[in-house]
Amino acid sequence: MATLKLEIVTPDRKVLSEDVEYVGAPGIMGEFGILPSHVPFLSALGIGNLHYNQNGKTHYVFVSGGFAEVSNNQVTILAEVAEMATEIDHDRASKAKERAEQRAATAKEKIEAARNQAALKRAVSRINCKSSGKTAGTC
Ligand code: ATP
């Protein structure tokens, strides 16, 4: 089967370097999908879950901010933050979700509300990433 190289890096570390069959990622304008031989492409990343297919299995990776670049049959994800589903601490994400929900109830400033919304989105995406990985049998 045709493959493309997926590399995910953050400022701290290389998260992943694998030959995969498909990559779906959360672009800032919505989800996009990349198959082998895709034309060159660049997108900013939002907060959400990237997934890739490899040997009949789907793997999930939480990403938050950064850029995705596609060229020469390689997808490079330069993320501000990224965690494989196996690395996600579910309890920590649940606590972050509770905190964001509590703060949302009392937020007065617009900027505060936006910060809470982003924190809530990160927490919910991490929880979903972990449970999708478990359902797929890859976490
Ligand atoms: P928290 O309030 O729990 O710190 P956060 O969304 O504010 O969550 P980030 O700013 O996105 O955290 O990430 C800070 C660092 O903590 C990153 O290195 C990230 O990988 C790590 N991190 C945050 N939450 C989790 C989690 N639930 N499981 C594993 N690593 C996490």
Give a topology summary:
Layout: E1 4-9, E2 14-20, E3 22-27, E4 30-34, E5 41-44, E6 47-54, E7 57-71, E8 74-84, H1 90-106, H2 110-136
Helix pairs in contact: 1-2
The protein binds adenosine-5'-triphosphate.
Adenosine-5'-triphosphate is lined by residues 64, 81, 83, 87-89, 92-93, 96, 119, 122, 126.
Q: What would your notes on this structure say?
A:
The structure is a single chain. The protein has two helices and eight strands, in the order E-E-E-E-E-E-E-E-H-H. It starts with a strand and ends with a helix. The mean pLDDT is 96. Strands 1, 2, 3, 4, 5, 6, 7 and 8 form an eight-stranded mixed sheet that branches. It has two domains: 4-86, F0F1 ATP synthase delta/epsilon subunit, N-terminal (ATP Synthase, domain 1, Sandwich); 89-135, Single alpha-helices involved in coiled-coils or other helix-helix interfaces (Up-down Bundle). It has helices at 90-106, 110-136, and strands at 4-9, 14-20, 22-27, 30-34, 41-44, 47-54, 57-71, 74-84. The longest helix is centred in the C-terminal third of the chain and has 27 residues, at 110-136. Residues 64, 81, 83, 87-89, 92-93, 96, 119, 122, 126 line the site of adenosine-5'-triphosphate. F-type ATPases have 2 components, CF(1) - the catalytic core - and CF(0) - the membrane proton channel. CF(1) has five subunits: alpha(3), beta(3), gamma(1), delta(1), epsilon(1). CF(0) has three main subunits: a, b and c. Residues 90-117 form a coiled coil. Belongs to the ATPase epsilon chain family. This is ATP synthase epsilon chain.
